[in-house]
Each structure stands twice: as C-alpha cells, then as structure tokens.
Amino acid sequence: MIGEKIRKIRIIKGYSQEYIADLLEISQSAYSDIERGKTKINLVRLKKVALIFELEVNYIMDFNDNQFLRKSIQTSSKQIDNEKEMIVELFNKERELYREQIINLKNEIAYLRSKLDEKIP
Predict the structure, then answer these.
(1) In CA terms, which of 1, 28, 55, 95 is 20 to 30 Å from 110?
(2) In sequence order, what are the residues at sequence separation of 6 or more whose Cβ sits closer than 8 angstroms to the Cβ of residue 52?
(3) pLDDT digits (tens, 9 = 90+) for 71-105
(4) What is the C-alpha to C-alpha distance for residues 56 and 77, in angstroms, rounded to an integer?
(5) Helical pair 2-13 and 65-119, crossing angle rounded to 10 deg
C-alpha cells in the first residue's frame, strides 16, 4: 500500500506529518488519511511527496525497508571513504608544510651559525 510506504519513508527521513502536510498545503488529518490508505494519493501530490523526500516516484512505489537501509548503508560507506580520503590528503599537506618548516629552520640555523662564526675570532 502506497500510504504505508510513504509513512515509513517519512519516519525514516525524520519528518512529522504536520511538516509534510504543510508542504503539501493540506491538513495534517488529510495527510494522515493518505498514510493510512483512507484517501488515495493522486499523481501530482505523489510527485510533491517524492520531491520533499528527495526521491524518485518509482522509488517510493517500489520501496521496501531493506532497500532503503541498503542504500543508506552504501551512502554512509561512500561518505566515510570520502572523508577518509580528505583526512589523508590534509594530513599529507600538513606533513609537507612541516617538512618545509624544518628545512627553513635548518637553513636559518645554518645562516645564524655562519654569522656567529664570522664574529668569533
């Protein structure tokens, strides 16, 4: 039943019935009737719901709990990989900056030693 699928997706997304109803410009009770299957949802309203959920209409129509969880896990895994790559890249850049600082400090020390050697008879 499409209303049940919409309800599950809404809950997973963390939206309230009031929030969705406001965006659809209907009352909360009218929206509740859609989720409970008392009122059939028309295609225009279903497209708006899909837009709110940032999903395709077909995805809502074919929705099942396992499918959504798998997609969430895959997305989370990709995000973790991207964050990991960014951290490694930042670490490598920071390491290179430290290397440059060390070289500059060594050069400065060498310069100061040479100046001291010139002054000491």
Answers:
(1) 95
(2) 15, 20, 23, 24
(3) 666 666 677 777 888 888 888 888 999 999 999 99
(4) 22
(5) 20
